[in-house]
Each structure stands twice: as C-alpha cells, then as structure tokens.
Design goal:
heterodimer; A: alpha+beta; 3 helical TM bundles of succinate and fumarate reductases; six-stranded mixed sheet; 12 helices; disordered N terminus; B: alpha+beta; four-stranded antiparallel sheet; 5 helices; 4 strands; globular
C-alpha cells in the first residue's frame, strides 16, 4: 500500500482531485508540539515564571502554588488533556502505592464498566481496539515487577501516539471518553441536574466528539466509575483570576473506601495539568 | 490491490469474519497504521454482508484509504430516482479524525458547493470516533431531504428550496449528470 496517498493520482487526476488532496492534507495538519503528550515532572517554579510579567493575581497564586506543590506534569492541550491527566494520574497513583493487587483490581473494574460499551448497542468493531488498549496497558503494568519500570511503561504508553505503535494513547483516551459518556447515559438521574438544559443526550453527543474537553461533570463521572471505588481522591486546583492569594482547591472524595491516594489536577481555564504536593504539605 | 479483500469480495456466504480478514491483512500493509486498516476492513465487511438500502461503498483499487460510495436520492425528495457518487478519503488517524467526503456526481443542494464540497457538522467539528462509513453515508442521504438552510454553501439553492420547489427540482435535474465509469475516482 502506498504510504503517501499520491500514487493513485495519475494523469486522469482533475484539478478538483488535486484540491481535494490538498484539503485532505490540510485537514490532517497538526501543529508541531515540542513537548510530550505527558511531560516528565517539572518544577512548579516554571508555572510561576510563565506569569512573571503577567497578571498580578496569577503571580501571587503561582508563587503560593509552588510552596505546596513542588512538581507538575505538563499535559498536551489537544482537547484530550482532562482525560489524559485523569487516566495517567489514576494509574500513576496506583503504581506509586506499590501494590500489584491494586492494578489487578483496576483491570477488573475496567472490565466491569466495559459492559457499558456492550450495552450501548454500538458495533464491537468500533470499540474493541479501545478495550484492548486498556487491557494491554494494565497487563503490561501488572507483569512489570518494579515500581520505576512500571512508571516508565506508563509514561511510554501515554506518550506514544505513533500510528504504527501498539500502545496507542489515542485508543486509551477514546476508551475513557466513551466509558464516561455511556456511564452518564445509563445514569441520567445522577447527572441531569448538572448538564446544560438538563439534556443528557445533547451533553453526551457533544462529549463524544473527538476534541470535546473534559469538564466537571465528565470528571465526576470518571471518578464515580473508576477512581472512587479504588479509594482514590481527585483534587482539582483552580488557577484563575478569582479572589484570593492561592489556588481554589476542590476535592472529589471516594464514596466508601478509605483514601489510599490522590490525583491532583491543576486547572487553568480550558486546560488540565497534573500537580504533585510537596511532602508534608498541608492537604 | 494489495490488501486482503481481493479474494473475498465476491464470496459473501463463505466470507471471513472481520477478525479473520484483519488477520489476513497483517504484514501486507507496512505503510498504513494497523488500526486504521483493521477498522476499514471491518467496516467494509459489514457493508458487504448487510448493505443498508440505497447505500454502497468500496475501496479504490490502489488504496484502502480511498473509497468510492454511492447513495440513492431519498424518495419523496427532489433527488428521488437519482444516484450520487461520492469519494471518501480517510486520514491515517481515522477514526480519530473525519474522512474527507466529496460529491463526485454534480449536485444542486444548499449544503454542497459546485466542487462537491459538503458542509455537514459531523464531517467537521462534530466528528466522533463511533461514526463510520455507514453512518456518514446515511447522514448525507438524510441531508438530501433535509438541508440545513441556516448556513448554505449554495445560497440560491437554499432560497429555491424554501420558496420555489418547482425551480429547485428543475435545477437539481439540470445539474445532475451520471458519471461514466472511467470518471470514478
């Protein structure tokens, strides 16, 4: 098979076809990012420096942020950042806890909620790759024996968006996106008061488009489905121009289990990164 | 044709399952992502085994990423008894990005321009990874009977659709021209 897609354009090619080809290429164009999809841990001083010449409210808040949260991971802002931060953060916290059984339990939990895909009526050829991507990643993490190697495998899987690769981060994120949407559709009573006009259908059909951002409703759904039962808290740090000298902190508590760990997400309007508290920082 | 469908396209009763055809293809598609190949072959198999009424689609002889489709004009619309050929070009990250779809048959329609370009939200910012060839073609078929006249590419067509159905129908027939086989993409 030709890799360029040009070879079939022989002398019968009309101007229309050339234009179509140009449009197709333009549609595929993705701006070059220097960064990774999920970066290594970076000092939060960098966030403070970003605002050095900016708004005073941000200068004060980012200065205080770095006192409590020493590191952050930059998450690529391509419309998937919230899903990427949550999914990476969840598995990272489970790995850091150092108990293989937690990873096994998480795999079981994913396979339970995969029933949502089956019940959705959508043909399995559409979603089986997503399920497989998640299972493959969890199997890899479970079979890897040391924490550092597990973290490395997770980092590699989430930074891999090569079309030829097996660990396909797009499949992982699309899996999460549709689990969330179908979970909300199956539990309308729980979510209808939080979506615009109370319309679950409109909310979910928008959530299912390829670059729809995560919001608090979809984050709540992700937590209810995947992290709450694992005993994982989610905390979001809101860095915005609201009144105050520090970021606004909001927690999603686990429902029953004791708290084992916390995913900390740093939210700036339209974007999620991951943040990491300094040891002994107030929680 | 260097993908696995060649031997199976005329043998629907004993045709391999989607899984089998995906397996057959492995190792023959170095340049195209495995996932897009697998997905398109599965879609092709489904379309062949249970074709929806008034719709057909098949890859070109040279690339699995380049398809030709046919849709029949819906009954009780100005497009009744007409058929339309379209081209679908799939990006290498399909289904995480929409295919580029063009009408090859000249068509007079409020949301299609004179080059065959289509204005339909699901082919742009409303694309979703659960959409597929079949759902795109069905959406286009219903677009024929229910144009979105709020944002027309062809303003005159929108105007005639709303206010002068007779003239609209006349323009549709005037513009329509069946493609010869060798004009197919």
């Amino acid at each position: 098979m030709e890799d360029t897609g040009h070879n079939h354009m022989d002398k019968t090619t009309s101007r229309d076809e050339e234009l179509a080809e140009q449009r197709r290429l333009a549609g595929e164009y993705v701006p070059a990012y220097d960064g990774l999809l999920v970066s290594q841990k970076l000092s939060t001083e960098l966030i403070h420096e970003e605002y050095a010449t900016g708004d005073i409210a941000y200068q004060v808040k980012t200065s205080n942020l770095s006192k409590d949260f020493g590191f952050f991971r930059k998450i690529r802002g391509d419309g998937n950042c919230g899903f990427r931060a949550f999914y990476f953060g969840l598995l990272e916290v489970l790995i850091e806890l150092g108990d293989e059984n937690l990873l096994k339990a998480q795999k079981t939990r994913f396979n339970e909620v995969n029933g949502l895909l089956v019940r959705s009526g959508v043909d399995s050829i559409i979603w089986e790759d997503w399920v497989e991507a998640t299972n493959r990643l969890l199997n890899l993490l479970i079979s890897t024996k040391h924490k550092e190697e597990r973290l490395e495998a997770l980092f590699t899987a989430f930074n891999n968006e090569d079309d030829m690769s097996d660990e396909h981060s797009r499949e992982l994120l699309t899996h999460l996106r549709f689990l969330i949407s179908y979970h909300i559709k199956e539990n309308p009573e729980q979510y209808k008061h939080f979506v615009p006009d109370g319309s679950i259908d409109a909310y979910c059909s928008s959530l299912e488009t390829v670059s729809a951002e995560m919001d608090e409703v979809s984050l709540t759904a992700a937590h209810n489905m995947l992290s709450s039962a694992a005993g994982i808290n989610i905390e979001v740090l809101y860095l915005d121009r609201s009144i105050g000298n520090s970021v606004t902190r909001h927690k999603w508590e686990p429902e029953k289990e004791k708290v084992r760990g916390v995913i900390t997400m740093l939210f700036r309007p339209g974007h999620y990164d991951l943040a990491y508290p300094r040891e002994n920082a107030p929680s | 044709m260097d993908y696995a469908m060649e031997d199976t396209q005329n043998s629907a009763p004993g045709a391999p399952t989607a899984h089998e055809s995906a397996k057959l293809s492995s190792g023959t598609t170095q340049a195209t992502a495995q996932s897009v190949t697998k997905r398109l072959q599965s879609e092709l198999m489904t379309l062949m085994l249970s074709p929806p009424p008034g719709i057909s689609a098949f890859p070109s002889a040279t690339s699995l990423l380049s398809w030709t489709a046919t849709i029949a004009g819906p009954e009780r619309t100005p497009y009744e008894n007409l058929t339309f050929k379209l081209s679908l070009e799939f990006p290498s990250n399909y289904p995480y990005a929409a295919p580029t779809v063009l009408f090859r048959t000249p068509i007079y329609h409020p949301n299609v321009d004179f080059s065959g370009r289509i204005c339909l939200d699901i082919l742009k910012d409303k694309w979703s990874a659960v959409l597929n060839v079949q759902s795109v073609l069905l959406s286009l078929q219903s677009l024929l009977g229910e144009p979105n006249n709020a944002s027309p590419l062809n303003g005159q067509a929108a105007e005639f659709w709303d206010h002068n159905p007779t003239e609209f129908k006349r323009q549709v027939l005037l513009r329509h021209k069946d493609l010869e086989d060798d004009e197919e993409c």
